């Protein structure tokens, strides 16, 4: 019998299996009709991998751009074709003259808005073909740089040619490419040897559960206690609350009139998303404003203030 759980599993992925394999195992474990994850981790990587079940898969599009925090280790002196320890060594360099201070300075220089070229061994596509498939056939193609933000790159330790650091970054950042780029700047080459994702938006390592924990919870009847409601997962999105008379319009996907609104944030910014909740509480939809705060104040009661992007409840 298929489950009707519309929730999120804050899963801890071990190193080894692919993210997609773990999602399928979670889906089978809880008998979900469908499941999807937020932010793919390479097989080598471990850490937080939020898995959305059934109806909760509809929030993935609003979670995919969340910032992430990683704990990483890199080895100086070798660059590889995959930019991690699973690849073939391309070049070696002398690392013994590299000091901790030099590493710290390179990390500091990389912080902020920057451009990053995606690695060939990645799921990025070129003319519809994943880059890793081309790379496996010995084909290298030009990749366009992608804008990313490195909020912080924190030096933690250096033992011999092994450097450990923590990076807080925007979605779409490749940490193995960051390791490679640091190796280039240091002039000795480098590749990633370990990666732990500690946080994805509101999901962190401390509150995550393993697949084994999930299976045990299902067996002892405590499964729902370990899962996260979609509304809780979306707490980072500002809330607008509708009056009871406006709830029917929302369930049918109609625009939200100003008169339907019971509460809105002080600042309203077009282009941002807002959680639409019932008067009595509970997530209904995600909406986008058509006006800013000043324009909102000038709207008449029957004028449209927000348009719906996604409705989560049935009429």
Quick take:
The protein is α+β, with helices and mostly antiparallel strands and about 325 residues long. The protein folds into 3 domains: about 10-65 and about 200-230, Pseudouridine synthase, CATH 3.30.2350; about 70-200, Pseudouridine synthase; about 235-310, Archaeosine Trna-guanine Transglycosylase, Chain: A, domain 4 (Roll), CATH 2.30.130.10. The chain has helices at about 20-30, 60-65, 100-110, 130-135, 175-185, 210-220, 230-235, 245-250, 295-300; strands at about 10-15, 35, 45-55, 70-75, 80, 90, 110-115, 125, 130, 145-160, 160-170, 190-200, 205, 240, 255, 260-265, 275, 285-290, 305-310.
Task: Give an overview of the whole structure.
The structure is a single chain. The chain has 315 residues and is α+β, with helices and mostly antiparallel strands. The chain folds into 3 domains: 89 residues, Pseudouridine synthase (2-Layer Sandwich); 133 residues, Pseudouridine synthase, CATH 3.30.2350; 75 residues, Archaeosine Trna-guanine Transglycosylase, Chain: A, domain 4. It contains 9 helices and 19 strands. The strands form 4 sheets. Strands 1, 2, 3, 4, 7, 10, 11, 12 and 13 form a 9-stranded mixed beta sheet that branches. A 6-stranded mixed beta sheet has the order 15-19-18-17-14-16. It has a two-stranded antiparallel ribbon with strand order 5-6. Strand 10 and strand 11 form a beta hairpin. The protein is globular and about 70 Å long. The model has no long low-confidence stretch (mean pLDDT 93). It catalyses: uridine(55) in tRNA = pseudouridine(55) in tRNA. Keywords: Isomerase, tRNA processing. GO terms for molecular function: RNA binding; tRNA pseudouridine(55) synthase activity.
